[in-house]
Recover the amino acids of this structure.
C-alpha cells in the first residue's frame, strides 16, 4: 500500500509538471525587447528570477522599421550605458544612427543572455486567479508578474482635426514617414514643433520641397553649451535626474514637447535655422474650415516664452559649472521670425500634411482595470495599480530621465527590487496558506 501511494504521488507530480510545461508557467513575463525590457531582463537574471522576454518582431524592430531613414539619437553615445554593459565604442561624443542602435541592442541582448522569444506578439494580458494569463501568437503563458516594456512611442498621435482635411490632401505620420521622395509631389505642411517636426521639415526642405511648419508650444535648446553637449549640462545640473516628486505640476510636465534638437555634433536646430533655410513658420494648427487651415496668432508670444525658459536653463547650468563660464557662452540669438500667416488655403497650396504631433503607448491588449477615465495607464513610479504589473519607459515615470536609455538603469533597479519583493510575499502567502 505504501509503495502504491508513493507511485501515485510520483505520477501526479509528473502529470502536473507536464501540464506546467504545456501551459508554460513562469515567474515573470517582460513584454517588449527594447532597451527597457532588456535592461529589466538583466536585473532579473542577476537576481535569479525566472523570466522570459516576449517580442512581437525582432530586437530593435521599432528603430529599424518605424522611424525615418536618417534619424539619429538626440543623446550622445556616452549616455547609452545599460545594466551590465557600458558604451565601449570609438565615438562617445557621436550620435548613434537608429540602425546602429538596433544592432547595439541586439549585441546587448546577447551579452546578458536575455531569454527573448521573438515573433511573439501579445494579444491579451488578463487575470487568471492569482496569476496573469498572457495570450500570444505562440500560445499562452501564465505568470505571477508582468513588466510592460513596450514604451511610450508605439503609435503616432494624430489630432482629431485630421478628420477635417479635404480628401485631396494626403496625410502621413512621423511614424510612417521614411524619406522625402516617398511623399506625393507638392508643398508639405509639417505639424509639430518638437525635435521630430523640425528634423523632418529640415530634411524635406533640403530635398527641394516647399515646407510650412506649424508650431505651438515648444522647447528651444542648444546642442552645445561651452563646448559640452547639452545633455552633459542637463545631467550635471541635476535637471535630467529630477524626480516626479520635485515637479510642481506633473501632468503639465508630461505634456511638454521634446526639445528642438538634432543628433549632429555641434549643430543647432531651431526656428531661426529653419527660417533662414527657407521653411515658412506659422503658428499652431487651430482649425480647418472650408478647406482653409487656420493657425493660432500667438506664435511670437510662444517664441519669447521658449527663449526665456532657455535663458533660465542656461543660468542653472552656470550655477553647476565646474568653473566660471564666459557669459557669451550662455547667450543665444532670440527667435526672430517674419510675421506668420494665419491661414492657408489647403486645396491651393498644400498637397501633403505630415503629422509630427507626438507618440503614445499602445496597451490595447492589456485587459485589466488599470486605466483612468482618459485611457491613461495608472501607475506610481512604474508600479501599476494591479499587483505584480509594472511599466517602463514612460515619460517622467520616476524621473525626467525615464524615457531615455540613460535613465533605464535607475528605473529598472528600483522596479526589479519591488517586483522581487512582490514575488517573495506571494510565495510566502502560498507557503503559509497552502494554496
Amino acid at each position: 500500500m505504501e509503495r502504491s501511494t508513493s507511485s501515485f504521488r510520483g505520477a501526479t507530480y509528473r502529470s502536473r509538471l507536464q501540464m506546467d510545461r504545456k501551459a508554460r508557467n513562469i515567474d515573470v513575463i517582460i513584454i517588449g525587447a527594447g532597451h527597457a525590457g532588456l535592461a529589466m531582463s538583466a536585473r532579473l537574471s542577476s537576481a535569479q528570477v525566472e523570466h522570459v522576454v516576449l517580442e512581437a518582431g525582432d530586437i530593435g524592430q521599432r528603430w529599424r522599421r518605424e522611424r525615418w531613414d536618417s534619424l539619429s539619437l538626440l543623446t550622445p553615445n556616452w549616455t547609452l550605458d545599460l545594466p551590465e554593459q557600458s558604451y565601449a565604442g570609438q565615438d562617445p561624443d557621436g550620435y548613434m544612427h537608429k540602425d546602429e542602435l538596433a544592432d547595439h541592442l541586439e549585441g546587448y541582448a546577447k551579452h546578458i543572455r536575455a531569454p527573448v522569444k521573438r515573433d511573439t506578439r501579445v494579444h491579451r494580458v488578463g487575470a487568471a486567479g492569482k496569476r496573469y494569463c498572457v495570450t500570444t501568437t505562440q500560445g499562452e503563458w501564465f505568470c505571477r508578474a508582468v513588466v510592460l516594456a513596450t514604451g511610450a512611442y508605439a503609435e503616432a498621435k494624430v489630432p482629431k482635426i485630421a478628420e477635417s482635411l479635404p480628401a485631396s490632401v494626403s496625410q502621413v505620420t512621423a511614424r510612417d514617414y521614411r524619406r522625402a521622395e516617398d511623399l506625393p509631389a507638392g508643398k508639405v505642411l509639417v505639424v509639430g514643433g518638437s525635435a521630430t517636426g523640425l528634423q523632418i521639415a529640415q530634411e524635406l526642405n533640403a530635398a527641394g520641397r516647399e515646407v510650412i511648419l506649424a508650431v505651438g508650444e515648444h522647447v528651444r535648446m542648444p546642442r552645445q553649451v561651452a563646448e559640452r553637449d547639452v545633455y552633459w549640462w542637463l545631467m550635471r545640473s541635476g535637471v535630467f535626474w529630477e524626480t516626479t516628486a520635485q515637479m510642481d505640476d506633473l501632468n503639465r510636465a508630461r505634456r511638454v514637447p521634446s526639445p528642438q534638437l538634432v543628433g549632429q555634433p555641434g549643430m543647432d536646430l531651431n526656428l531661426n535655422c529653419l527660417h533662414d533655410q527657407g521653411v515658412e513658420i506659422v503658428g499652431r494648427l487651430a482649425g480647418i474650415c472650408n478647406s482653409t487651415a487656420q493657425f493660432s496668432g500667438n506664435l511670437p508670444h510662444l517664441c519669447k516664452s521658449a527663449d526665456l525658459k532657455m535663458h533660465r536653463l542656461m543660468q542653472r547650468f552656470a550655477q553647476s559649472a565646474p568653473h566660471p563660464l564666459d557669459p557669451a557662452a550662455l547667450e543665444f540669438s532670440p527667435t526672430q521670425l517674419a510675421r506668420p500667416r494665419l491661414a492657408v488655403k489647403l486645396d491651393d497650396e498644400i498637397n501633403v500634411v505630415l503629422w509630427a504631433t507626438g507618440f503614445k503607448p499602445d496597451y490595447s491588449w492589456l485587459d485589466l482595470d488599470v486605466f483612468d477615465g482618459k485611457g491613461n495607464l495608472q501607475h506610481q513610479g512604474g508600479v501599476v495599480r494591479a499587483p505584480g504589473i509594472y511599466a517602463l519607459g514612460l515619460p517622467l515615470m520616476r524621473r525626467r530621465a525615464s524615457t531615455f536609455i540613460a535613465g533605464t538603469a535607475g528605473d529598472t533597479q528600483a522596479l526589479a527590487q519591488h517586483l522581487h519583493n512582490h514575488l517573495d510575499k506571494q510565495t510566502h502567502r502560498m507557503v503559509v496558506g497552502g494554496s
User: Anything to note?
Assistant: DSSP finds eleven helices and 22 strands in the chain.
